[in-house]
Amino acid sequence: MTFAPADNISGWNKEMDRMPKVEIYTKAFCPYCSRAKALLETKGIDFEEYDISMGGPKRAEMIERAQGGSTVPQIFIDDRHIGGCDDMFALDRQGKLDPLLAA
Q1: Does 82 fall in a domain?
Q2: CB atoms within 10 A of CB 17
Q3: Of 84, 103, 69, 92, the residue nearest 34 (C-alpha)
Q4: 54 domain residue, yes or no
């Protein structure tokens, strides 16, 4: 087993610190949720997924964070609400999504 030199690890940690925090509220079998997740995956972006199929506190949290938005998906990049699937694809078409994901 080999280990990376300490300076490489610290560089990797700095790179990880620059990655945006992406959160997506979803429901099982939602085609818009699947499309949104697929776009993020093709861009190599890790994301935190909250399945709200059964309701509960995460659904209430989503509605509060999305200022009343109750449809899924609801997507947040670094705590900034960007909307749903169509909104994220529109940002991508306009060339505005990649800069948000590179923050």
Answers
A1: yes
A2: 7
A3: 84
A4: yes
Domain of residue 77, CATH code: 3.40.30.10
Kindly give, in sequence order, each residue whose CB lies less than 8 Å from that of residue 36, ignoring residues fewer than 6 positions away.
24, 26, 73, 75, 84, 85, 88
| pLDDT tens for each residue of 40-80 | 999 999 999 999 999 999 999 999 999 999 999 999 999 99
pTM of the model: 0.83
Q: What is the DSSP string of the chain?
A: -----HHHHHHHHHHHHHS--EEEEE-TT-HHHHHHHHHHHHTT---EEEE-TT-SHHHHHHHHHTTT--SS-EEEETTEEEESHHHHHHHHHTT-HHHHHT-
